[in-house]
């Protein structure tokens, strides 16, 4: 255990504690993976392990403020440690302090002392101590918010610096030494720390004395977190890693935050362009790329207002331009064309939903987060299914909007078109898109589609247009009351996420009651990753809370719900757009009624 020295000639207690905890961290934390658990909690287990595979702990560092010579050596000795050499100047920390507090560099004589620390596992770690001597305090300095600029009393500025640095621990860091001299490894490590752990590049440099390139990162943790900085020490002079690191650094956090905070503007700009039919008006049939005035006439908009909207959409990648003789011509990009009403899998109805009723209800997100309640119902006075049913234009837009993400269904027809399958029952089959795709791909199959009355009408129309309606029975009904029997495959596509666990249990129980012993249940959903991995499911989980009263779930959560309703989850396979196909059959059913295709057949 580390013994600390105290007394009037000793380091201040706060500095002793910081030094002691750095030595303790080095002594006990051992592996990079273990250290990352606290330093970068956003990283998943596998990501921590892959970082740890390339790095070893190098040191933990703190900044202390001795008021008399010998205090630091005394503090180290009190902990059973000794400096491994004479102090050397630290220009990096000095320059950072100067930039942070505007104090003259000659008043910031920061030096570095290193001391070896025996580790629990029999190895040897190191603490790195930055030391900034300050004169003994003579009364209270300025408060924590006051600037310590040039011209101000340097003593007062230093006291301010000490107070803030002790509270914020800006210079405390943990360093990892990269155990490979490989640019691909450096790029991968930087990617994990910046993109996955959410750390911010914070400078770097080459130290010719040690022939080491150092990249600095700051964690997203609040000020005062014990080790908010991380350093990667790479062997040699790594000019391309440094350049890439500095490039990302120029991405100012304030700017990033502004772009994030104004996300609602994007939603509205896209919805307004969709509403005006901007992308349709730029299609070849409508005259193709156009100058602003011409386009304003085509869509019935104010030229100046439209000009501003188009410029913004161009920065979002939805339009190419402005170009041409008047530098005011725009053309749709591939992304923008997805918003044309006649585009295959058009996302226009979805843009109208997200910029319309769901935009209004997202304004009540605070209510949803505070109470766990459905903000849509709170705002509109009814759950969205009955509300839309009473507001037909929105009901149609909702049904059409489900079509936008029907790319997810691509691999499913091949799964159900198997020997032993004759009848597919799509429970809450929506606008019939999935049933259409299944019946169109397999002329020998028949379908049953269960839906609410007005949705059935839309589905019938869609299947009729595709020439497959004669092989489908349309059933108006409520899946909480009964589900049609006699199917070989039952589908619940994007249904369970609309409901809480109790609602899901009711739906699954009705399916179980209706399904013949050997029938298979297919569930299509987005799975919430069990760790910090990104997926569309993460954002839609919030959408489900706010607008539907349901939730996205992890695979284990679905496995449990299925088990409680008497099903075994037998396989999962990925679908496009972060979707997953879950195949389940009754508990104890001897064998699948028909062959189960392999994952590669589904991918
Ligand atoms: C999110 S949509 C999914 C539609 C379709 N399965 C798909 O993946 O595109 C959910 C569907 O559940 C239907 N629904 C809601 N409550 C229902 C009920 N009680 N009985 C039958 N269908 C219902 C809605 O009409 C809606 O079409």
From TrEMBL:
It comes from the Bacteria. GO terms for molecular function: O-methyltransferase activity; protein dimerization activity. Residues 258-339 form the O-methyltransferase dimerisation domain. PROSITE patterns: SAM_OMT_II (PS51683). Residues 363-567 form the O-methyltransferase C-terminal domain. GO terms for biological process: methylation. Keywords: Methyltransferase, S-adenosyl-L-methionine, Transferase. This is Methyltransferase. It comes from Streptomyces globosus. The lineage of its organism: Bacteria, Bacillati, Actinomycetota, Actinomycetes, Kitasatosporales.
